[in-house]
Amino acid sequence: MQKNLFGQERKVAGIGMIPLITITTVVVICYRYLWKLFVLDEAPCRISAKSVTVLDAASCPSLMSGVGVPTFKGRYDLGDIMQSEGFTVGAELGVQNGYYAEAMLSRWPNCTEYHLVDLWGHQENYHDFANVDQVTQDLIFNDAMERLKPWKEKIKVCRNYTTECVKTYDDGYFDFIYVDARHDFKGVSNDLAAYWPKLKVGGIMAGHDYVTQDDGPAGGGQDWTTNFDGTKDLTGTVVKGAVDAFAASVCRQVTVSYREDSWNSWAMRK
Hints:
- The chain is built from 6 helices and 14 strands.
- By secondary structure, the protein is α/β, with parallel strands linked by helices.
- Helix 1 (about 75-85) runs parallel beside helix 2 (about 100-105) and helix 5 runs parallel beside helix 6.
- Residues about 1-55 have low confidence and may be disordered.
């Protein structure tokens, strides 16, 4: 591990000036956003270009000892990782036309069950290109089912809200859960919290669009700052903010894809 000496003290967001003696670099979480994970005086902390968040070592005893997710270039590599890990049961939240499900099943032959969770329905308070009218949603659903026919013995469909479908799954059921449904802060946060218990210990949760509002959606005319309940995400952190907050709450390292030009993917191990 690489040793780095900073100055004698540094300002930490929400804490103030604290002494920094020797910081041990453990792992680069996301080069794009300049995030790293450090050990500071035996307490792990995350340092970004904007702030430093110190995590309480007592409340995160497994943070440094657990096995993280292998690095991956892009989200399609996750299928190879699932195969190499010997995983067999997965779920995808937000399926749309089924292109990603097709790619995952093609690269994950050991998969025995792949659950497709999607409303395939128009939603209020969702300013996303995928939120088309109901007639088009039905056509998209039919297209997805046709595309995934080669794996008809493996796929299980729950056409409903993610927060309704989750009630049908036992805790610890899935090896892999891919979160790509709504992209507003509250929507993502709800999905992460609801499906985390459904993931086996050692399983992998991942998702797409690890961005803030300004990173991508705004440039394309989408507005993910409107939450599902009509409230506004004034931070503008949307998906990235929800993932970071949840990862910190469960003391997990976030691994981010390193070869996607935009709309990066993320993953964490339970």
